[in-house]
Design a protein that fits this description.
The chain is mostly helical and 283 residues long. 48% of the residues lie in helices and 5% in strands. It has 10 helices and 2 strands. It has a two-stranded antiparallel sheet. Helix 6 packs across helix 9 (223-240). The longest helix is centred in the first third of the chain and has 26 residues, at 37-62. The N and C termini lie far apart (60 Å).
């Protein structure tokens, strides 16, 4: 059975959802002046995305089994087979043998990059906190907000469910996904199937394609699992973010390397204005 590659295009001949109204909006956008071009462009893009979403939703509902028949459908990869050099010096002959070689190489990289956590420096500056805290149930709006934060891509984990699919069917699966999320939060259990990650080796464009060390791993986790993780992360940040010191910039939303440099620079200028000596050290 052959597999036809489908490409989304703005031409009506390739997409039944591309209507004459969208074509008119595109014409108006192209002919608009510089003052209105941005507004017309946003209007056209919004209409195209809405038409795509409506079309995908109608297709899903027209299938036998409805929305869940698509969510449960297994996706198959048709990527070109890659042969790499195994530890024995021979080229791999099967997908399984190639996967095992990449597994060994990527695991060795992870082990070499592992570092022992040293949280004591952070613990020393944290205030005393004796209040009890735990995860709480979420609302459908919380789940909807987590879905909105997903990237609208076709990438999917081992379950074959992409971010674009979940965003397109957000309202159809919202109640069921809220129930699943709350069961995870209240029971303290994260399904094993959502922990599985698809690892895709990507060539670095340097070295030999047959050398497994010339590839970098791209991990694609379950998108459904990301929704639950986003909700947990939101609750966790609300509980501890106000306890963290203002000088902590790493791995915090709304704080970046630039913010840290600006704060250090401002502090240096402040000290110099007071005729104080300034020294910067690294640990």
């Amino acid at each position: 059975m052959s597999h036809k590659k489908v490409t989304l295009s703005s031409r009506k001949s390739m997409n039944p959802w591309y209507t004459s109204k969208l074509a008119s909006l595109k014409t108006a956008y192209k002919a608009s002046s510089d003052l209105t071009k941005a507004e017309m462009r946003n209007k056209y893009i919004h209409a195209v995305r809405k038409a795509k979403t409506t079309h995908v939703r109608q297709l899903a509902l027209s299938r036998k089994g409805g929305v869940w028949s698509i969510l449960k459908r297994n996706s198959k990869s048709h990527a070109k087979q890659v042969n790499v050099i195994s530890p024995s010096g021979d080229l791999t002959r099967s997908d399984l043998e190639t996967a095992n070689v990449f597994k060994t190489v990527f695991q060795s990289k992870v082990n070499s990059l592992k570092k022992t956590a040293k949280p004591q420096a952070l613990i020393d500056v944290l205030p005393d906190y004796n209040d009890k805290w735990d995860l709480i149930s979420c609302s459908p709006k919380n789940v909807a907000d987590a879905i909105d934060k997903l990237k609208s891509t076709l990438s999917s984990g081992t379950d074959g469910i992409s971010g674009r699919l979940i965003k397109s069917l957000k309202f159809e699966i919202l109640d069921a996904l809220t129930l699943l999320t709350n069961r995870c939060l209240t029971e303290g259990y994260f399904p094993t199937c959502l922990k599985h990650t698809r690892i895709i080796p990507v060539f670095k464009n340097k070295g030999s394609p047959k050398d497994p060390s010339c590839y970098r791993p791209i991990a694609i986790a379950s998108v459904l699992g990301k929704v639950i993780e986003t909700i947990v992360n939101t609750q966790l940040k609300q509980a501890i973010d106000h306890l963290l010191p203002e000088t902590m910039f790493g791995f915090r939303e709304g704080k970046s390397t630039e913010d840290a440099l600006i704060k250090v620079t401002d502090r240096i200028k402040e000290c110099r204005q007071k005729k104080e000596y300034v020294a910067v050290g690294c640990t």
